C-alpha cells in the first residue's frame, strides 16, 4: 500500500496512494468481508518523512473496518522495518487502530477469524544467513499447524517471479489453504501444493515498470468457504504513460502528437527521448505540457551505445559469485551488483536500497538480454 509515498516529490501522488487505500477499505465494507489482510508494506517508510498523515489515514481506515466488525490483520514488510532505531509506524496501527500484527508469538499462535486461522512470516532479508535460518525454523513450526482452513500471510519474493531478495517456492511450508503474499508489486497468482498463492500487487504504481500492469491494480477478494476461490477487484488509479520520441524536427513533433492524443489531462507522463530528438526537446516538452497538462512530466534521454556482438557465455561450475556476476552482466555492472549485495548482507543501508532500486529499474534484465 506504501502509504506516505511522495512519488517524484509530488503531494498529489502521495494522495493517490491514500485514495487507493481508502477505496480498498470501502470495497471491504461493501463486500462485508470478515478480514482485511495487509501482506506487508502498509507504509512506504518505517517513520513518516512528511508528517503524520500516513498513520492518520491508516488509523481512520482500520477503525472503520473494526467498527463494521471486520478483523484487520497486518504483517510488517521491508518498508515497515526501521533501518536503525525508532518505533515503526506499524505499531501505531496495532495500539490505536485495533489491527492484529502478526509478529513474534502472534505470528506462530495465529489469529482465528470465522474458523480460518491466519499465520504470518514478516519480511526478512534472504541474503542474511541468520535471518534465513530463523525463518526456516519458523516455517517448520508453521508447517505443523497448516491445514486447508488456514492462511499463510508472508512478505517475500518467489525467485520465479522476482529474481532478487527471494526464496524458492519449494521452501514454503506446504499444507495451507491459501498463501496471501506481499512484496511483488505486479499482480500474480499460481498454485502451490494445490492451494492458491496470490500476490495482489501494489494498489498504486510504485515504479515505472509497473505501468504495463496499471489496469490490474486493486485488492483480491477471497472466499474461504469455497476452497479459497479468489477474484481481483480492480480500482482506478491515476493514468501513467510512457511516450517514446524518435526522429528529429517535424517528425519527432508529429510522433509526439500521435502518442499523446488519447492521454487524459493530469496524467503522469514518462518521455523517452532519443538522441536524435534531443535538440528538439524544448519544443517537445512545450507541446506535451500545452496539450495534455500532465501532473508530472519525466524526461529520459536515451543515449546510443555501441553494440558489440560477442558469443554467449555460460558460467562454469564452481566460479566465484563476483566472476559469475561479471560474466552475466558485464564487468562494471557485475562488480556494482556484487558490492551492493555484499552491503545488503551486512546491513539494510543505503547501498542495499540502491541494489533494490537497481533491480527494480530493469537495468539488470537489459544487461542480461544484451549479453
Automatic annotation (TrEMBL):
Keywords: Exonuclease, Hydrolase, Nuclease. SUPFAM superfamilies: Metallo-dependent phosphatases. The keyword Nucleotide-binding does not apply. It comes from the Archaea. Residues 17-186 form the Calcineurin-like phosphoesterase domain. One of its GO terms (molecular function) is exonuclease activity. Coiled coil: none annotated. InterPro entries: Calcineurin-like_PHP, DNA_Repair-Maintenance_Comp, Metallo-depent_PP-like, Mre11_N. This is Calcineurin-like phosphoesterase domain-containing protein. It comes from Ignicoccus pacificus DSM 13166.
Amino acid at each position: 500500500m506504501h502509504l506516505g509515498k511522495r512519488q517524484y516529490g509530488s503531494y498529489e501522488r502521495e494522495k493517490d496512494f491514500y485514495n487507493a487505500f481508502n477505496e480498498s477499505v470501502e470495497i471491504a465494507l461493501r463486500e462485508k468481508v470478515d478480514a482485511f489482510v495487509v501482506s506487508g508494506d502498509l507504509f512506504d517508510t518505517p517513520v513518516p518523512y512528511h508528517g503524520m498523515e500516513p498513520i492518520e489515514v491508516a488509523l481512520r481506515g482500520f477503525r472503520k473496518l473494526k467498527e463494521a466488525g471486520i478483523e484487520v490483520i497486518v504483517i510488517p514488510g521491508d518498508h515497515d522495518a526501521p533501518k536503525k532505531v525508532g518505533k515503526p509506524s506499524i505499531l501505531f496501527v496495532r495500539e490505536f487502530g485495533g489491527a492484529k500484527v502478526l509478529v513474534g508469538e502472534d505470528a506462530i499462535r495465529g489469529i482465528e477469524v470465522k474458523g480460518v486461522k491466519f499465520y504470518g512470516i514478516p519480511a526478512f532479508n534472504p541474503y542474511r544467513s541468520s535471518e534465513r535460518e530463523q525463518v526456516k525454523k519458523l516455517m517448520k513450526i508453521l508447517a505443523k499447524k497448516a491445514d486447508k482452513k488456514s492462511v499463510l500471510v508472508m512478505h517475500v519474493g518467489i525467485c520465479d517471479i522476482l529474481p532478487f531478495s527471494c526464496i524458492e517456492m519449494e521452501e514454503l511450508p506446504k499444507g495451507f489453504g491459501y498463501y496471501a503474499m506481499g512484496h511483488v508489486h505486479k499482480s500474480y497468482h499460481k498454485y502451490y501444493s494445490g492451494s492458491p498463492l496470490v500476490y495482489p500487487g501494489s494498489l498504486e504504481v510504485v515504479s515505472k515498470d509497473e505501468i504495463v500492469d496499471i489496469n490490474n491494480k486493486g485488492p483480491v477478494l477471497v472466499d474461504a468457504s469455497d476452497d479459497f476461490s479468489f477474484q481481483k477487484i480492480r480500482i482506478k488509479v491515476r493514468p501513467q504513460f510512457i511516450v517514446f520520441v524518435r526522429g528529429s524536427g517535424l517528425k519527432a513533433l508529429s510522433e509526439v502528437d500521435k502518442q499523446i492524443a488519447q492521454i487524459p489531462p493530469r496524467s503522469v507522463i514518462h518521455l523517452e527521448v532519443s538522441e536524435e530528438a534531443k535538440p528538439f526537446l524544448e519544443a517537445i516538452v512545450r507541446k506535451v505540457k500545452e496539450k495534455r497538462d500532465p501532473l508530472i512530466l519525466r524526461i529520459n534521454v536515451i543515449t546510443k551505445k555501441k553494440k558489440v556482438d560477442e558469443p554467449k557465455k555460460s558460467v562454469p561450475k564452481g566460479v566465484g559469485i563476483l566472476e559469475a556476476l561479471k560474466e552475466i552482466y558485464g564487468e562494471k555492472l557485475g562488480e556494482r551488483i556484487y558490492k551492493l549485495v555484499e552491503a545488503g548482507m551486512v546491513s539494510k543501508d543505503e547501498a542495499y536500497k540502491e541494489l533494490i532500486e537497481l533491480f527494480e529499474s530493469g537495468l539488470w534484465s537489459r544487461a542480461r538480454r544484451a549479453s
